[in-house]
Amino acid sequence: MAPSRPTRAAAALASLVPVLLLVASCGSGADPDQPTSASTSASPTPTPEAVAPSPSVTVTSELPTAAPAQLVTAGAVAEDAPAQAAGVGSATVTYTRGGEFAVVIVLDCTACAGGMSPTVLTGPGRGTPYGEAAGPLAGSYLMDVFQGSDPEQSVWLQADGPWSIRFESWNDLPGTTGPLSGTGSTVLRMFDQGAHAEVTWAPAGPDDDFSGRFFGVGDQQLFGNDEAFTEVVDLPMPGVFAIRTDGTWTVTPQP
């Protein structure tokens, strides 16, 4: 962990933005042999040839600032009817939301290669991408949580390789109860009855962080950290918990 990075406390805070209600509730080389000589004096050792350094590939941290030229249409998203799309390379992927629900993006770009630019899933006007990686990227991400948002939506995928993406209603996520654990970004639909949960997180590396958003009874709950932690946080369940990270996490509901 770089000492210059500030630490964000893992404290929950309420958001003031209105959100949708739940319907259902991530060479030197060896010197050449000395040549023989009739002279008794030793021949000078030849100077080894300089070894050219291997070229290195530097992955920039630049995120896309404009929509990729390739346009892929996933179609309409409805309850019990997800929309899907697939392609190769960077693309703008569009869909139409058919109802008042938040949309979960499920990305599989595990065959994407690490090129000069990172693999990034983002969208118009976003300061922070849904997900990014130096090479392969996969996970579930939450969008369309604001009431009255435009049903015509799009995401931008910066990628080098084949990918597939699915858009589905958060009401179609399988319900869960009890302790949960995993690695990477995901969206959980928690059916537990309680007001708190113990959250444990370990980063995947020095640049990783944890961001959690919970939508349940009352206002949206937001919390995060960039150092490993175990904290009891306010999660008024049942609800939907969106986790953004590359690291490992455990969520244990409590009364």
Question: Describe it for me?
Answer:
By secondary structure, this protein is mainly beta. It has two domains: 63-172, Jelly Rolls, CATH 2.60.120; 175-255, Sandwich (Jelly Rolls), CATH 2.60.120. It contains no helices and 17 strands. It has strands at 13-14, 71-77, 83-88, 91-97, 103-109, 119-122, 131-133, 137-143, 152-158, 162-169, 175-176, 180-183, 186-202, 210-215, 221-225, 229-244, 248-254. Strands 1, 11, 12, 13, 14, 15, 16 and 17 form an eight-stranded mixed sheet that branches. It has a five-stranded mixed sheet with strand order 2-4-9-6-7, with no helix packed on it. A four-stranded antiparallel sheet has the order 3-10-5-8, with no helix packed on it. A hairpin with a 5-residue loop joins strand 14 (210-215) and strand 15 (221-225). The protein is globular.
Which characteristics define this entry?
255 residues; mainly beta; Jelly Rolls; 2 domains; 8-stranded mixed sheet; 5-stranded mixed sheet; 0% helix
